[in-house]
Amino acid sequence: MTLSSRFSESPNARSKSITTADLDTHGILNRHSTNHPSFQVGVSEDKGARRTMEDAHSFVVDFDSIRGQGFFAVFDGHAGKHAAEWCGNNFHDQLLAQIHASPNLTIPDLLNQTFHAVDDQLSKMCEESDGKIHSGCTAVTAFLRIEDSAGRQSFLSAVPESPPSDSPLSSSILNDESAAASAAVSSSESIGPEVGEGKSPKKRKDKSKKKTLSGSRIRNAIKNLGSGSSSSKNQLGSSSPTSPSGSRKSSGAGVVVTLPPEGHRRVLYSANAGDARGVLCRGGKAVRLTYDHKGSDKQEAKRITDAGGFVMSGRVNGVLAVTRSLGDTSMKEFVVGAPYTTETELCEEDEFLILACDGLWDIVNDQGAVDLVRDLVDAQAASEALLKHALDQHTTDNVTVLFVRFKHPRPGGVRRMEVDDAGLMSSPVRG
């Protein structure tokens, strides 16, 4: 595939056009569901004071053909549009391929593998382009998943049917064997950042050693679209035959939507690399779900110096202000793609989620953003209000805001991955 066919000719990053459906989206990228029972999405963006727009975004309603699931992401590009534009159009495909290829891995591990697979794909494109594609992007992603108390999807009683060509699991992923092979990242690296070529990352204390999946196994798993069961935090295996099963509904376009039974919990998994940020509003209070990876952060600076680099004036090797990103191939030894992840079981107090690039967060803090839009019921109006505030306060960057308002969340708590002194992620703890 040539560069001209892979990317738009515009100097601005182009996200897929937003469309609208009454309810069923058929899994199509950036399609709103106006009468969705679980959440509402709003997206607003502007290039601000910059000459070009290097941000991209993506969302999928009823992700993986399960009613109530959702994928949401914002990608903030630098040194060009290509990394952000590619991620906006393809990251969700990569995640879905990982979910079906490794159904027994936890969602944080799958998110980590997806970040690594995307990072590898961007590096491959850089090499194929003879350096014409050298950009990078920060990323904040969120996956709203429907699961039972054991962290499984026991209501899935049948193997998912193959989605149409324009659904999240696109033919480009199924046919790209090199991307599938590169996705086989050892789960022993699941959360901690890479610390340089030839060095092994520090392991989490509670992680058991797991085998790296072979490329052929991944390709076969993708071909078969998994076994119908997803990841588990505690015990794995097939669904209990006595577990309540969800019903299946044909939504047209060859897509069968699974309707989970009542009583299942909704868990919001987030992952970020760089300073794109995700903030949850819980009972009017801002709860940050992400971690800002910047050169000014002491833990990140130590990781970089331990790997042989340096931080000058808050920039990695005097160049890049963020310490983690997707792409940036020439600096990959220091600017890693390993994400920070959180896991949040939604409760009735959880009102909405804000995903945005630093063009917003440079202007307003977490609580200020929550206070600004809490009374706005419409998700699109809320995203527009946050964008307008950033522009009115003269942000110097591109701005992209993705706003998700939840409807009737389930009770629960919050778990997050803590960062140790070496910049690695420790075991999740209840918060």
From TrEMBL:
Residues 201-212 have a biased composition (Basic residues). InterPro entries: PP2C, PP2C_BS, PPM-type-like_dom_sf, PPM-type_phosphatase-like_dom. Residues 156-256 are annotated as: Disordered. Keywords: Hydrolase, Metal-binding, Protein phosphatase. Pfam families: PP2C (PF00481). GO terms for molecular function: metal ion binding; protein serine/threonine phosphatase activity. Residues 167-190, 223-254 have a biased composition (Low complexity). The keyword Metal-binding applies. Residues 40-406 form the PPM-type phosphatase domain. The keyword Metal-binding applies. Belongs to the PP2C family. This is Protein phosphatase 2C. It comes from Coprinellus micaceus.
